[in-house]
Write a structure and sequence with these properties.
elongated; 26 helices; alpha/beta; five-stranded parallel β-sheet; 480 residues
Length: 480
Amino acid sequence: MRGWFGRDAELAALTELCERARVAAVVGPPGIGKSALAHAWLAARADLGLDTAIVALADATAEDLEARIAAAGAPAAIVLDDADRVAAQAVAIGARLAAAGARVVVTARRLPAIEHRLELGPLALAHAAEQRSPAAAMFAALADSDDPAIEDLVARLEGVPLAIALAAARASVLPPAELAARLDEPFAVLRRPGEPRTNSLAGAIAWSWTALEPWVQRALAQLAVFAGAFEVATAEAIVAVGPDGSLLDALGVLREHALVQPAWPGAFRMLAMIRAYARDRGEPTMVANAVARHAAWMASRGRQHGDRYAATGDPEARAWLARALPDLDLAAQGAGAAAIEAALAADRLRAQAQPSPARVAQLDRAVGLAERTGDAALCARALDARAGAHLALGGFAPSIADRQRALALVGDGDDALAARLHLGLALAALATGELDGAHAALTAGLAAADRAGDRTARGRLGAALALHATLREDHAGARA
């Protein structure tokens, strides 16, 4: 088993925990492979000649728990598997068994009250040219396939072992590329006959969903509108929890049930399969309202950070945009001004970081949408973003045309944007040797920056003016 399921490091960590503490827990979200890891640990103990036992506790109750475990006898190594419903009692009994000399592993989705635990994540997706990722190796072994599309498929499955196993069960019917194409409806594809909790992706998640109180379910359904990791402060602006608890309370419960995982301090992430399930089960109007709040929030924050990044190159603004790209892209799929603002924030970052004709094409769409809104300021911002993409690709003429048109739309209404537009015009003119045109743009830009009180824009325009003077061999002007 260890040859293909990619858990050698985790198995070593679990073994070390059990040697040190004698009782340990393996925890993690649905379908992540907790039982498989515990069984591999137990198999290694059996290879050493030790007596071993597995006690399945998925349907156990507090009343029959003691009898079930006692029926296993007194093995040297024991796994108390799927102990979610009786986690606290299972840990207590495990401690007694450990005190009597056994080594014990408890598996559960919920985090039991135990010091020594291993939190399991997805199988690794990283791979080299000549070596499969652990996630792809698992699929290849189960499906007996060496299709090159496997890596793309397991990436769509996020390296979740249950999802990989269920996809592999379809491999005799569909090749990996076609399986991946059907994952927009994952729960229709990732299932097979048998007990739903272990033979259906939806069934595995449902088991955790039904363990949540209704107000926590509502919070989870709304958190599922995020496409990527989310900061707690952002989620508080989008999720309406109700009178039964706060979002912090809900996140605490969801963390306990391993339905969200830490992303960075003050932020969490959720597996895509859990997001899809929660959105499907959420009340439609509630989810739609959360989607609208998400789009408005991402558009507003995206504009703030996008404008700051465009004006100053601020690394903190760029870092925010980079983290928020999945959610900006999601917000951009909507309609109206919020969608355009989100698209501009995302595409400005991409156009400057990775300029390409495809980025220009994306901004073409944003310009078209902005034009249809009739909002002159929004259209000017869209033209400015597209002009930046043209300039990065050396398209000086279209860049100049876009910014001249944007200036005509802005008029006297936004001096900060006008200063930025004039700077872009000047840079394009300098690149093409149009020094008179560059000087006129820089002079107009400095005046706009002064009216706006924008010292950063004035500094950048001043630096461009110095370059202009150097090109004219006006060294005194350049020094000034």
